[in-house]
Amino acid sequence: MLIHQRTLKNEVSLWGRGLHTGKECMITFKPAPDNYGYRFIRTDVEDCPEIPALIDNVVDVCRGTTIECNGVKVHTTEHVLAALYGLQIDNCRIEMNGPEPPVMDGSSQQFAEALLEAGFHEQEEPKNYLVIDESIEYHDQDNGVDIVGLPLDGFRTTVMVDYKNPALGSQHSGLFDLDNEFLKDFAPCRTFCFLSEVEALANLGIIKGGDIDNAVVIVDKTLSSEELDALAEKIGIDPSGLILGDNGILNNRELRFTNEPARHKLLDLLGDLALLGMPIKAQILAARPGHASNVEFVKLLKKYADRNALARQYQHEKKAGVIFDINAIQNILPHRYPFLLIDKIVEFKLDEKIVSIKNVTMNEEFFQGHFPGNPIMPGVLIIEAMAQTGGIMMLNGNDNINDMQVYFMGIDKARFRKPVVPGDTLVIEAVMKSRRRSVCQFDGKAYVRGELVCEASLMATVVKKEK
Questions:
Q1: From start to end of 97-169, where are the E strands?
Q2: Where's the active site on this chain (predicted)?
Q3: Known binder of ligand: residue 268?
């Protein structure tokens, strides 16, 4: 895989209609500086606002991925982003004089060819790969969707689809080498839909630019000639040019690959993965993916990336089973002896859950008076250890951690189940319950040898330190 970031040598433009809006649009790809990422610029809107192609800006996933920033949208971004991601371009300014990129032939091929024509320029900054070193899983049981990211020193992805339709059947496809496979094996694969969906999509007003030249329509129902003519009129196509055909595809169109639908799903997945904002080193396995599930999976990747960014910033030495050691904790929290009450962080899911370890020894200062001859860890200090654990979770991977301070606002439902004594190892778990702006609520539980010894509900706020 490439080491350095790259952008374009020259700018290049394409013109066409948007698939869903039906509006004419010219899209221009331009060179961009290091660490710029992908940004859409709406030149038809006053002040030419930028819409960064990032997962936090996704607002709609109905038959495409729509992003929005400050009230300005870009529809159906996935084929453009797939071309950029597949060609391993890191930085690109994407100017558009309309709300949606042109659909072209329903694939990424013409975008990719235009980008190749513009040429590539290697930049000085290294690529910021997200390296996955643990399993990341998304499951949607109701829709039978499973997407899993596995550790791999490289990038490959496999997609399986099963629409239980004779024209398609069960299909799968895999991409194992972006350099050699993307352009010829995946960029040409066109979007598709079922004939039974076309009228409903037209009624929703989301295929105003669709026709038989920019989508593969799978015949999954029989229509009379009158019904076919009515459908053609509904979607603005000349009825004389519309036939059911006999190969399972409207108008007897030929697939470019026998598994073109599965390959197009993989292409869509690449476009949605681009919204992470960084290339990935991982093996991605996806069963029955769609834009909604892709976006949810990328959100999981972003949480993993944010957590790892915090770990890279503060945990300089990688240790098995440890997210943050005591040195990293001291770089994050202001607490010091004798009031730093956690020794390491062993699990951290950003904005969800964090687990710390506190080794309780007879050398703890408080045992001198609590109690002589019967040493017991004060319950209030167990609560404080929970608070420090939750405080790390609340800092949320921000770059300005050193400028922030966590203050606790309330303790509720505190219960002390068993005494904690020297020699015990406290396993402290904090689970986020709600977060509104800077105020958070989380539940804390402390265990010794698997037994619950203390629990409480805590509320806290993150504020800037006073200078």
A1: 120-126, 130-131, 136-140, 145-150, 155-162
A2: 291, 370
A3: yes
